[in-house]
Amino acid sequence: MPRSYQCFEDEVRYDPDLHLSPEWPERIWTLEEFGYRPQEISQCPSNVAVTSPFRLFSSEGIDAVSRVVNRLKAVKSSIRGIRTPSHLAGGVYRSRFLRDLCACPVILEHMSAISGTRLAPHSLPSQQLYVNYSPDDITKAVDSWHYDGIGFDYVVMVTDPVKLKGGNFEYFQGTKHEVAEMFDMEVHEIRDGISDELDESRVIRTRFPRAGYAIFQQGNMVVHRAARLLEPGDRITVVPGQVAEDISYPDPTAIHDIVRYGEPGIKAELARHGAWLAQGKLQHLIQHQDMSDGDAEILEQLKRAVAEVNAVIEQLEQSDPPT
Ligand SMILES: [Fe+2]
């Protein structure tokens, strides 16, 4: 727990039997349906792109979530760049209820079944739960087009969507590369957010039927946004983030961006994230290193096993050069 966070002390206890009412999504879109090639899909632990909205919380559950996020409104952080005008990261450090929700085995089991790969609460705790509040200025999108800096997440509608005009969850049914080409930019630049409109015919607009419904996505593979509100209204979503337990795939975590996030403790979180990945990969190497491998292969495997640690070191050195 980074020192500057303060945790609520008088919350209700999270209870999956009371607070959850999980249902299966009617529709699950695959990365193939988004136009990704087999080679790109083979680098992802799941073939799922995004789902239709499905019920996740009971009415008691969403009432409890709503109480917590309304209390958190008072401490919401200010914006970074042109992305989300009003969001709060690190929910799990501020609320035991939210921390337990993110670690809930029932939810993890459900999302793992949907994605087809074992998922865990994100290895960067500040990214385990975001809250997005509607901006005061409704001419601004709630969030501009982007893809996520983490592998998996689900967006839960907390407020009543029926009362809202606009503010749909929207995604582009295509690949990140197509979007980058459209705007003549590098793929990673999409992460900074695109305020312009995308080709209407390729944009899917999803309305949540009720509070307590969720959309699951492989967020680093889907270009998406929360569209602007057409009338002032209370639109709050919570976005829990997850990682695949199978670490044999390339790490989708955007550590080069995340190192610049202002969350207290973010650098320690990144160090632990890199250490977690390297630990598993080094263990695998100890057990499976072929004693007759060639010199080049041995070197390559060892470099791969510690690649994320070296990447974090590089980012930490760049962001805060030692004096
Ligand atoms: Fe997102």
Set down the secondary structure blueprint.
Blueprint: H1 16-19, E1 28-30, H2 38-41, E2 48-51, E3 54-55, H3 59-72, E4 87-88, H4 91-94, H5 96-102, H6 105-115, E5 119-121, E6 129-133, E7 152-157, E8 169-172, H7 176-182, E9 203-206, E10 213-217, E11 224-226, E12 236-244, H8 255-258, H9 266-288, H10 295-305, H11 307-319
Antiparallel strand pairs: 1-2, 3-10, 4-6, 5-12, 6-12, 7-10, 7-12, 8-9, 8-11
Helix pairs in contact: 9-10, 9-11
The protein binds fe (ii) ion.
Fe (ii) ion (FE2) is lined by residues 146, 148, 219, 224.
For the secondary structure, the number of strands is: 12
CATH class of the largest domain: Mainly Beta
**Do you know the CATH topology of the largest domain?**
Jelly Rolls
CATH architectural grouping of the largest domain? Sandwich
Overall spatial form:
globular
The helix content, as a percent range, equals 25-40%
Under CATH, the homologous superfamily of the largest domain reads: q2cbj1_9rhob like domain
Q: Please report the distance between the alpha carbons of the first and last residues.
A: 27 Å
Low-confidence regions: 77-82
Which molecules other than protein and nucleic acid are bound? fe (ii) ion
What structural class do you assign from the helix and strand content?
alpha+beta
- Report the total helices: 11
Roughly how many Å is the radius of gyration?
A: 20 Å
Number of domains: 2
Helix and strand sequence: HEHEEHEHHHEEEEHEEEEHHHH
Biggest sheet architecture: 7 strands, antiparallel
**Mean pLDDT metric:** 92
Query: Beta-sheet strand percentage?
Result: 15-25%
